[in-house]
Amino acid sequence: MKAPLLLILTVWLNSQYGGCAFSSSCSYPPSQWCSSLDSAIQCGVLKQCLESNFTRSRQTADPVEVGLYYESLCPGCRGFLTEMLFPTWLMLDIMSVTLVPYGNAQEKPDGQKYTYECQHGEQECLGNMIETCVLNMTKMAFPIIFCMESSADVIKTAQSCVEIYSPELSWDSVMNCVKGDLGNQLMHQNALKTSALKPPHQYVPWVTINGEHTEDLQDKAMSSLFTLVCSMYKGPKPEACGGGKRHYRSYCHNE
Questions:
Q1: Is 249 helix (H, G, I), strand (E, B) or coil?
Q2: Spatial CA neighbour of 59 closest among 241, 251, 223
Q3: Does residue 246 register a pLDDT over 70?
Q4: Which intervals hold domain Saposin A-type (predicted)?
Q5: What pTM was computed for the model?
Q6: 30-52+63-236 is classed in which CATH architecture?
Q7: How far is CA 105 from CA 45, 188, 223, 248, in A?
């Protein structure tokens, strides 16, 4: 899933600096660029797909599990997700991410369903629900949520973010989930996961590493999640963590 995202960045950089990595004959959405040999060849990204698969094949230990308990309109949550968590996840294939959009919401039973009150109002409840449904409906949920949370208006951009990163997922189906029984039950599961935290969460963003939360881990995650994940990975460190011996020492001398 990360490979297409990295390829999007590659395509953009090449377009900015005169390259031509992406083929105009490509008929596949970005999420499917590396799904098969045919799609990689047609879209002109075979080399990048092969390199990504090679990196994953060298992993010899379990990934570091990073959990984020958050709410969609919390400024601190948005900052951590977009500026720390998502970039680190893109750069490191040695971590997995679990997102739980609920945060400081309050759940109340209402017959066979539940109602929710959110810290930042009804719009935040809607944002939480959209992101919860997306997490259940597509493997491209994290990029969609990053797109939403990094925008000026989380709610208004939700549909366009879905269309960009998961064009096969219809917005109507997302909203059917949001307004229906499925979304209500999925949010109830988020509520249960959040209430089961030990120690109980006192604020958001609330970060767990391999299922554990301590103030020390939280502080390290907030200051440099990249460094924390690299230090906790038990396998051989990837080059991005400084585990390789490759050095880039190329200089342009003043002549």
A1: coil
A2: 241
A3: no
A4: 19-59
A5: 0.79
A6: 3-Layer(aba) Sandwich (3.40)
A7: 43, 11, 26, 48
